[in-house]
Design goal:
Helix content: 40-55%
Oligomer: single chain
Strand content: 5-15%
Radius of gyration: 18 Å
CATH architecture: Alpha-Beta Complex
Strand order of the largest sheet: 2-5-6-7-8
CATH class: Alpha Beta
CATH topology: Lambda Exonuclease, Chain A
Distance between the termini: 26 Å
Shape: globular
Length: 235
């Protein structure tokens, strides 16, 4: 379904952008105005956009989900589904992975600089620091955990090792979806055009990184209050 026509997102505060309600008064005001416009137009104001960075992240979801780190775990890949808050109309979100009744997880396959910055933040295991440096990613996890009524969130980063590019390119070659045009660059471009980590001991980072944490009650309350107040301003 086109993002423009997704009825669960039209005029709703969504997990991917909900950090704006927790920001400056100006950011909050602008976000609420955008949601009002969507309700008046009966469509999302965002349009389906394409970039290689977005396509890279989308395509790697299935690859990451096949890695040994997930074997034996009860994750479900639900990234194509939009869920709504069980009691608050106008609050929705799409999470990447869920272990039903246990936790949600958000997978980020960023470009090199942001991958390093976000991974370094996760490695501190300091939720206050992560919230300060990466409010968008942090509140996305908090929001989706609230929507799914689970106590735990997990942040995951992934960037393949150079040795993994062969398998990823093979997946592109075998892909039969109608949107294959989005992903051809992965198979056709030189490796220098792709985000990857070198397979050597001088590389500080691992390809797969995760940080699981219990959602602080103060953030659940603060975000829920912010959404309720914002919903009340819509008509």
């Amino acid at each position: 379904m086109s993002i423009t026509e997704n009825v669960e997102r039209i005029g709703s505060f969504t997990s991917s952008e909900i950090f704006r309600l927790m920001g400056t008064p100006g950011a909050r005001k602008t976000y609420i105005e955008e949601k009002q416009i969507e309700r008046d137009m009966n469509r999302c104001i965002s349009v389906d956009a394409h970039s290689q960075a977005m396509a890279w992240g989308n395509f790697l979801e299935d690859y990451v989900f096949s890695l040994d780190q997930f074997v034996g775990m009860e994750y479900r890949n639900v990234s194509q589904t939009t869920d709504v808050h069980p009691t608050i109309a106008g609050w929705s979100g799409s999470t990447d992975l869920i272990v039903p009744k246990v936790k949600i997880a958000e997978l980020k396959c960023f470009q090199p600089k942001k991958f390093a910055q976000y991974t370094n933040a996760l490695l501190t295991m300091d939720t206050e620091l992560i919230k300060k440096l990466f409010p968008k990613e942090y509140y996305q996890i908090v929001s989706n955990s609230i929507i799914h009524e689970v106590p735990t969130g997990e942040a995951i980063t992934f960037m393949p090792y150079e040795s993994e590019l062969k398998d990823i390119r093979a997946m592109v070659d075998a892909y039969e979806g109608g949107d294959i045009w989005k992903y051809r660059f992965i198979a056709e471009n030189d490796k220098s055009a792709l985000p990857y980590l070198p397979d050597n001991e001088n590389c500080k980072f691992k390809n797969f990184n995760r940080f699981e944490f219990e959602i602080p009650q103060k953030d659940i309350l603060a975000l829920t209050t912010a959404v309720l107040n914002a919903v009340e301003e819509l008509h």
